[in-house]
Amino acid sequence: MADPMRIADLPTPSLILDRRVLDANLTRMRDRAAGLGVTLRPHLKTAKSDRVARLAHAGESGPITVSTLAEAAYFLDRGFADMTYAVGVTPDKLPALAALTARGASLGLITDDPEAARAIGVRGAELGVVFPVHVEVDSGSGRGGLAPDDPALVEIGRIVDGAPGASLRGVLTHAGMSYQCDGPAAIRAVAERERADAVAAAEALRAAGLPCPVVSVGSTPTATFAERLDGVTEMRPGVYMFMDLFQAGIGVCGEDDIAVSVVASVVGHKPAANRLLIDAGALALSQDSSLAGYGRIAAAGDLQVASVHQEHGFVEGASPLPFDRYPVGARVRVLPNHACMTAAMYDRYYVVDGGDEVVDEWDRCRGW
To answer: Are 106 and 152 part of one and the same domain?
Structure first.
């Protein structure tokens, strides 16, 4: 029998996923959703893996959120039909979305634009489908969506509700500003605004005589700290599956809750600059930086990736580095700042179960 593969045997850089930590994160969020009385519709833009999606639903193929057409096709092929495509839809994408619908997908779309809403209704009829549509609400992030009291919200609702190729599913918002919060108290306040704005938008539609069965909110920080979700029907957190240093920095998790890391090799020493050179740079780690630089070296005190080039990273620390502990060829594990961006370049996870033995390989979707 061949010896088991270990992290030290992997090519570098490689993406490591700790199944034990992942399971704990998934269980915690399922319990949160149940306790708050809402459906969990996890956002798979982080994991992009059907194996993770199924674990998120305790082995079932439950409702999910996607952010690309490639994700929608990938998950449909693997038995996930109930999806929300949570990016403002453009008319050119409607034929591809209709083709997925014809294959059995139930794909909820979002828009905050009256003309786009008209196009969805007209093209849906031409393509022989009825597209479920959410009106996107801006609950403070300033990205996409309408304020709950914007007259365009009801206007879009009426356009969709009266169109032969569309149906009004509800409202959807994302409190992206929760990522800029400093601690749980601030996140709780953002979570309440997210909830209140989504519910106010739903009530505006209903007051106009329009249906609004779905009231959807979503971000990992607000899902973690929301005190109540009265009036909400579902939540769509995503990065909770893996967590990262950003989430740890705002108090959502601890570093022990981070399920993914990048294994890299030491490829050089720079004693005069008190630096190690590793073969994981901007492409392997992303260029999202934080107080931990471009990632922290796991179980190594204050060592962090202080700067990156395309394929190289410089590891630095406040004290003289122990170069003898990190000879050329030594492996280090880098905890990511932003798990979604770090994982994006990889085609697979090397799965471990709390140790250094690689117990499985899981594929992941890429592209748009």
So the answer is: yes
Domain boundary pick from 211, 240, 269: 240
pLDDT tens per residue across span 60-119: 999 999 999 999 999 999 999 999 999 999 999 999 999 999 999 999 999 999 999 999
Q: Render pLDDT for 197-238 as a digit per residue (tens, 0 to 9).
A: 999 999 999 999 999 999 999 899 999 999 999 999 999 999
Task: Supply the range of the domain harboring residue 52.
Answer: 37-240
Which residues, in sequence order, are bridge partners of residue 64? 83
β-strand partners of 111: 135
Amino acid at position 280, single letter: A
Both tokens of 145, joined, read: 């969506």
- Boundary residue ending a domain (240, 275, 291): 240
Q: Between β-strands 348-352 and 331-335, what pairing exists: parallel, antiparallel or unpaired?
A: unpaired
Partner residues linked to 43 by β-bridges: 65
Distance CA 167, CA 163 (A): 7
pTM listed for this prediction: 0.96
- Contact call for residues 244 and 49 (beta carbons, < 8 A): no
DSSP 281: -
Residue 28 lies in a domain: no
What span, in angstroms and rounded, lies between the C-alpha atoms of 188 and 317? Answer: 34
Helix, strand or coil, per DSSP, at residue 9: helix
| CATH at residue 132 | 3.20.20.10
Helices 151-161 and 114-127: angle between axes, nearest 10 degrees: 10
C-alpha distances (whole Å) from 54 to each of 8, 26, 48, 50, 58 are: 29, 10, 11, 6, 6
Report the alpha-carbon distance of residue 176 to residue 94 in Å, rounded: 26
The token pair at 327 is 């000879």
The answer to whether residue 10 sits within a structural domain is: no
